[in-house]
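B., you asked whether I could sanity-check this one before it goes into the benchmark set. Here's the sequence:
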Amino acid sequence: MSIPLVIGLFALLLILIVGYNVIIQYRQRLESEKQQELAKHIAVIDATEDLIGNAHHLPYSKELLVCLNQRILFALQSMSDTDPTEKSLPARIKNVAEQIKHLQANYSNADVASFKTPSTDKQAIGMLQLVKRLKTVIKNEHSKGRLATQAFVTENARLEGIQLRINIENVVKRANDARLKRQLGTAKQLLKKGIDVLSSKNDNYANKAREKLQVMLSEIDNSQSQNHEQERQQIIDKEHDELDVLFQPKRKW
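And here's what the prediction gave me:
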């Protein structure tokens, strides 16, 4: 066998090996990108399902629930586009689509969970974090054109109202706790802060809450005034007693 032929075969083999490696790396890169894309959609689905699972903690409107379920539907459809071979996706897509139709047709205000006043600071923080997550979701869905502007504005305002209510109800609880501990200065600071927050609001809840906080603040002021008057009277009585002892007639022994 001639040397040029050997060299040619060797070069051809080398080209085949390099080409094969390039193809393998390309396929691996495509698979990696696909898995990353699927993982992103799975994370969206998991986070959204978690939000739906917390519907018993806050009042969820029909529009909000539909928006969350549509978010899951879009993620599933994107997963199906990314990986058409996944056989479980068509059934999941069908189930979520039916769930959305059911919500749109049957969900009413009577199904909305009532607002539950947080009983601890930890619970209040958890509720506020949930509201923040929901506001972020509807903002993102609106920016992607999946939530109409008017629906976004209405739902965002509703969530801000819930956020305000959580904060104010927690202020009331903490102020009452401070009063029980005779920490009247702390209670007054909390109530004044709540009144300041409510000063720019003019809805039914804000007006009633502001009036309630003002009554509580007045009660503390009156209590402090009465305490000061009692203390002043006790001082006066004590001074009178000391004067009586000083100027009382001396006994003759």
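One thing to flag: The CA atoms of residues 65 and 246 lie 81 Å apart. Otherwise nothing jumped out at me.
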